[in-house]
């Protein structure tokens, strides 16, 4: 077995048993990045020297019997998390060469537990996208390819496409990610790995570049459900610097993976059976329900009647919050500046025109419009009311079920040149995922099968607020039954 083939749990076991050192594990991943990243473009910044220095320090701690729970594990960090002394771009030209003088709470937690950071990975600009095509640093290539069309480059999903592609291609054992409307779960499904968006407030947002503050939530992607549980156990926790952080103890998520699902009631929302949904997505969903039924779970049909309003609600709330959050990028305080010798208004206009990409500009314009004096009540206020109804639907469902199973995405990964010129078609990629963000619920994507072209498809488990333990238990049962062992064609050692 190559060092890059370990799961995160397997790597920790090997490190603890002395089968490999963190320095060897880290060097193997850095070599893989050097060989493969020029093709798939998952990393924006590679911090090789820092990583090796951290790995040697980890080996010394382990030798002294002082290893943390993630000590020596090489991870990738989505370039939305501020990292002290390392460039943070949000995949946008407007941040230029911004180097934060502080560490985000989530990455500080991982460093506290001994993780090794390999570098910063690519994303859609300011996390706005479902394909990783809006990055100022170029798109990311999915390491998977179609069986009958291997030359067509596929998207890894977005916005956390660099995180998912790096893990799938064996360029990191796990990665941080963020999810505003599906940005962890969709790329995880497209790349054949696991990824969880925890409950809103479970992970601190302090030091994470903001997109839509009432929706953004950090979480991990990794090769297995248990690996995600290990990472989330480190990433999560109360943070007084974040007013939306919830002061609750962090459970042993990894232990919850072994609970099983016997006696659990699993909900099936009838509104998720969309007209025109591909047959293979429907079949996989039914297969997932059969797997859980065989494990002793009870399947219960439920109704989430306001689901049909979720996408339009999301695409009012998220751009509105984005237009407010992105107002801080003005060319004055930090980041790029385009000065033409005019007044302050000219400075703002030229800096933002040059610094923001087309999709970010589109969402700023939408958001500014729905917040404007003449349309605030008609759009933004109404969207917030509908959002409350969507949350109420889930609250009523939790009286009947313990978790909900749905497809993760409406299709497998699509071509880099497909759908990109149609913003509405791109937005529809979030149809199964946005409800969890609007209601603040945990959602986990688990690789569960392949489509007719040999591309991975995922199932999504949605749970009650702060009940990630049940989500991990259901996800592990699905993972065990699916026995998803197919690997992408492009990965470390196979390029």
Task: Summarize the structure in words.
This is Glutamyl-tRNA(Gln) amidotransferase subunit A. The strands form two sheets. This protein has an eight-stranded mixed beta sheet, sandwiched between helices. It is of the alpha/beta class. The protein has a domain at 6-260: Amidase signature (AS) enzymes. The chain has helices at 8-16, 22-40, 48-63, 105-112, 161-168, 185-191, 225-235, 253-256, 279-294, 310-325, 344-355, 358-371, 376-397, 423-427, 434-439, 468-482; strands at 43-46, 74-78, 116-121, 174-179, 194-197, 217-222, 265-269, 298-302, 403-407, 443-450, 456-463.
- Radius of gyration over C-alpha positions, nearest whole angstrom: 21 Å
Which oligomeric form is depicted? single chain
- How are the strands of the biggest sheet laid out side by side? 4-6-5-10-11-9-7-8
The percent of residues in helical segments reads 25-40%
Return the string of H and E elements. Answer: HHEHEHEHEHEEHHEHEHHHHEHHEEH
End-to-end separation: 16 Å
GO molecular function: ATP binding; glutaminyl-tRNA synthase (glutamine-hydrolyzing) activity; transferase activity
Catalytic activity: L-glutamyl-tRNA(Gln) + L-glutamine + ATP + H2O = L-glutaminyl-tRNA(Gln) + L-glutamate + ADP + phosphate + H(+)
Pfam family, one: Amidase
Organism: Roseomonas mucosa
Question: Tags for this entry?
Answer:
glutaminyl-tRNA synthase (glutamine-hydrolyzing) activity; eight-stranded mixed beta sheet; ATP binding; Amidase signature (AS) enzymes; alpha/beta; Amidase; transferase; 16 helices; Glutamyl-tRNA(Gln) amidotransferase subunit A
